[in-house]
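Listing 4. Sequential folding, example run.
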Amino acid sequence: MGKVRNMETLELNDQPMLCSGHAACPGCVEAISVRHVLATMGPDTMAVVPPSCMAIIAGPQPFSSLRIPVYQPTLEASAAAASGLRRALDSQGKHETQVIVLAGDGGTYDIGFQCLSSAAERNENILYFCLDNEGYMNTGAQKSSSTPHFAKTGTTPEGKATRKKNLTEIMAAHQVPYAATATAGYMQDLVRKVKKAKSIQGFRIITLLIPCLDGWGLPDDAGLTASRYAVESGAFPLYEVEDGERYTLNHITRTRPVSEYLALQRRYQHLEPERVAALQAEVDAGWARLQRQVQMSAAEAGASA
């Protein structure tokens, strides 16, 4: 038998914030991710949830599986709706109430991006969670600009011809107070980042990788495994960027090739060896670029100390 890892206990709110009976698929990583996000945020929180898998999970108004107030705007308007909600609460003196967004990659990377960029430029005091399942999974697994290179989707049956957009780097270029990546396969890291983001004022964004069982072609019990493999291969690095300048890499080693991550998923079963090698080269280049950012920010911090 293999070694059993030491498990850390997560100290979270005992009262469930995402109730049982919600409409998530069996084994859905989004449900377990949001459950821990909400438990960390606490009950004094209001959520903006645009059309997405999360809107289905939450339930149609006036019903909701979330034990906090939920506002469902149009798909493109999440960041603007959250900005308005934040200002309304501030005008009532409710400065401690947290305003969060729970949006998918389609409503973040694509349709809602202009709104997101504007909120980041204004440094609105909101915490934005992008629940990134790398496609429009709620409507048939069509590709988004978050879909990785060569992945097969409903609209790219031979594989997507372009690379995945790097949202965290784009947000870092806005010099927002906090931008980070996280995933439920590394739950302690996820909860720590939510706590940290909660304590910061201004615009904050955390992109959560959400392996989609149906859209990626995974067994019902393989979502967290895919999440861990994404990190361990470097396909989805865990890192933080503060004020657009200070980079911290949270999982510093890669312990498996990208091919093992791809082999879990039906959306990559069509790939020929040369394309697998091309994806490995892309991941290697991205990892090297991220390491340079970490090293430069560490050198700058040392020089200014």
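-- end of first protein; second protein begins --
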Amino acid sequence: MKTQPDWQWNEFQHIGADFSDLDEVEDYDRKHGQFRDVAAENRQILELLNLPKGVRVLDIGAGTGHFVRAAARAGLRPTAVDISTTMLGYARREAEKEGLNEIDYTHAGFLSFDFPEETFDAALTSAALHHLPDVWKAVALSNICRVLKPGGQFVLRDVVFGWGEEGHVIYCDKAIASLPKEMRSRMASHIAREYSTLNWIMEGLLERAGFTILSAEKPLSYFQVYHCRKD
């Protein structure tokens, strides 16, 4: 991980939940498992990418490591990147339980990972890019594009807003109400404090970074899945 200039956004600062705490990490994993079918999500991502065995795939903001474990089981060579050493330790522990020892782990973030150019065949980030303001999302996406091989694929899954004539008040209230009760306060905090952007801004950022958007799906009103290719 390279040394960062003093004017660069500090991506290691805590915004939202404190994932340096093991109890918080375990609670995050448990709660998300209650309202998400994580295994099905990972199958869908792998089907979307349709990668041959043995290729390298990068997961930025890998969290508790569900995707990198699924990728390893599918015969890929995954690298997990996260700013939380606690998250990485948890992910490594869960992988070792399954005998998945071929996963690489890197303590870094979107702005600070410094893999060589054209290292990976594909990249993924899920529910992590929203921790950066839009200016730094642009830098992060360029860094992802840099480390992908020509024609490499990128899947972005994140909270992305897109209200229409209803306006932001009704839209945000509906988004919060759609979640289980125990997750609503966290979603309200996310909207108030974190950096999720609008769909038309996100699409512009992706294209300016060097990606062609192959598909854009909205499984939830506030959640977007972009499948992209490096130009």
